[in-house]
Structures are given as structure tokens and as C-alpha cells.
Amino acid sequence: MAHTSPINVEDYRQLAKKRLPRMVFDYLDGGAEDEKGLEHNRTVFDNVRLKPQRLVDVSQRSLSTKLFGSTLSMPLIIAPTGLNGVLWPKGDIALAKSAAKAGIPFVLSTASNSSIEEVASQCDGELWFQLYVVHRTLAESMVARALKAGYTTLVLTTDVSVNGYRERDIKNGFKIPFNYTPRVLLDGMRHPRWSFDVLKHGMPSLKNFETSAAQDIEVQAALMSRQMDASFDWEALKRLRDIWPHRLIVKGLTDARDAQKCYQLGIDGVILSNHGGRQLDTCVSPLESLGEVTEACPFPVLIDSGFRRGSDVVKALAMGASAVLLGRAALYGLSAAGEAGVDDVLRLIKEDIDRTMAQVGCASIHHLTRDFIKSDNAGLSPSLQKIGA
């Protein structure tokens, strides 16, 4: 009898594609321009091969790790992603609850469909808040709300000074609220499970912007045009460091020099990211920058963009990453089956990490080093070329 349950992230991607209207799936799955960045984020993993060590006792394996003083059950974090309520009713809360059950942090996006306060009141896991600076006054208001609500970590996203040219979204006319054209209505009819959820729960909105601080005329103008504050610079980061008393992480870097500047400013860590290929299509993969950043910076270096399997995670950890953030991988599970789907994706990746650790002869993720990997020098950055040469 054939196995019908999902056995990997790609299976959940296919289930998500079946349940979601094309316009919504394309928003989740798509990238910028020709989507070469999406492809590159995946193929770069093929250029790093695992190099097993034999005759090692791996009968007992440990995936737990310490990050910023907290104990994680495994080196994973649910990445900040926007408009999750379009994928599943109260999608942000489902993701946060799944992360809490798994013993890993959840990062709430500024563009969430559940508010900062709502997520904090319904979830008991470790919560981080990701900040988009649309308008300085509004950003400071959100930072104060996250602090009051008990979020432990602030994550500043730096790679959206302008919006990426996402051609799938442009062709589909994707925006919130939806423009209910005949084509959109017909697509909804072809996906009745998703449409029923929308009819039952209503079309989600950007809850974090439904405050008095967002009623300012300048703020409204910025929101209506979906423009970020492109003037946010190192001086602005210094001010943010001054007003946020807890951990501050900068997300969206791919250059070791930027990471070093963050360290010098007292930032607690960085997230190497190219926004999952959704911003600059021909951007380097974060994995290509990982080696030189970890060599240059003595603080936690996290990474996202393109992770689908436990072996991907093991490769990044061996190259010096402290943890990996899962974006689309978790969202495919959410889109297919809600909280239960996220639970299962996390289970599958955790088991894959554990199985890979056993296969390479490493009993603890703390023992992973570059001795466990070898890179293919063809077409790689200098930081990858010198690994395992």
C-alpha cells in the first residue's frame, strides 16, 4: 500500500498548492523578477557536501542548544512572515503555538494578521518581534508595544528599503484587501476549503497597524503606498539600540562588513538573509556569506533562505551558524493543515537533522565543525571555496 502522508517539506508544498488559490500560493511561493534567487538559494546547498566521520558512538544524540541564554530543543526558529492569516485562519497564532510546543522561538512579523498583544496573550513560548520601519514614529510605538507585551528579542529587517519586484503578485493583482475580479472569484470557487475559511473567519487585516499611532496622515500615506523608510541608516540603528533594552538582532545582511558594524554598535546577533529570494533576484545566497561572517564576528550568526531539509541545517551549523530560521517550509505546513501541519513539518525536519547527525558521526550539534563538510569550488564565493579544500 502506497504511503499517502507527507514525508517531506515538498509534499507539504504540493498540498499547499492544492488548497490555496493560485494568487495566494504564488504570493507564498514566489520570488523577485525571474526568480533566479529562489533557485540559487536551493542549489547552493548542492555545492556543500557532508563528510562523515566513522567509528563514533552516536547511539545517543543531542539537538538542543543554547541561544542568547535560552535553551532550544533544536537549532531552529520560526521566521517572521507576513499575511499568514491569508494562508490559514489566525495563522500567526498557529505558528507561535507550534513553535512553543516544539521548544523553539517564534518571530512575529510587523505585517502579521494577529496583533502583537493578541499573540502574546495566546501563546506561552518565547516570542520575538520583527520590525519593519515604515515610519519612525509608528516603529517606536510598535517597539514599545512589543516591550510591554513581553517579547524577548527585537529583530530589525534591513533588506526592504523598497519592495522587491514580485512579478507573480503583479500579474495576479495580489493585494490586501483582495480585488474580487471574476478571475479571483472563479479561483476561489476552485479552492472551496480555503474559500470556506475566508467566509467563516473574514479576510484578515494588518492588525498591528490598527492603532491610534497609525492614524497620522504621514503614516497613512506610507502605509497606502507600501513604502518602507528608505532613509533608515546606521545612526537610526544606534537610536533603536538605545530605546530597546533587550536583545536586538539585525536581519537581512549578506556582507561581513555590515555584520562587523553591527557588532561594534552593540547588536546582539545577525540573521544572514536575502529575504527568501523575494527582494533582489541576483543577490548572493546567505550560505555563501556564512563562512566569512562567522569568522569575522564573535556573536551569534543566524541564517535563513532556502532551508528545506535537516541536511541543509546541518551544513549551515557546520559552517558556523548558531541556528536556522524556517520561513516557507513552515508556511507550507500551515497552508496545508494549519497548526498540525506546522507541527509535522517541524517534526520531519527535526528527525532529518537527527538522522543526518547519526549518518555523519556527530552526537551533538555543538560538535559540528567544518571538518564535516567539503565544498565544490566551482562558482562559489571565496568563503565557501576555502571550506574543506
Automatic annotation (TrEMBL):
SUPFAM superfamilies assigned: FMN-linked oxidoreductases
Example GO BP: aerobic respiration
Keywords: Flavoprotein, FMN, Oxidoreductase
Example of a GO MF term: L-lactate dehydrogenase (NAD+) activity
Active site: 275 (proton acceptor)
Any single Gene Ontology cellular-component annotation: plasma membrane
Domain FMN hydroxy acid dehydrogenase: start-end pairs: 1-378
PROSITE patterns noted in UniProt: FMN_HYDROXY_ACID_DH_1 (PS00557), FMN_HYDROXY_ACID_DH_2 (PS51349)
Family: Belongs to the FMN-dependent alpha-hydroxy acid dehydrogenase family.
Protein name: Alpha-hydroxy-acid oxidizing protein
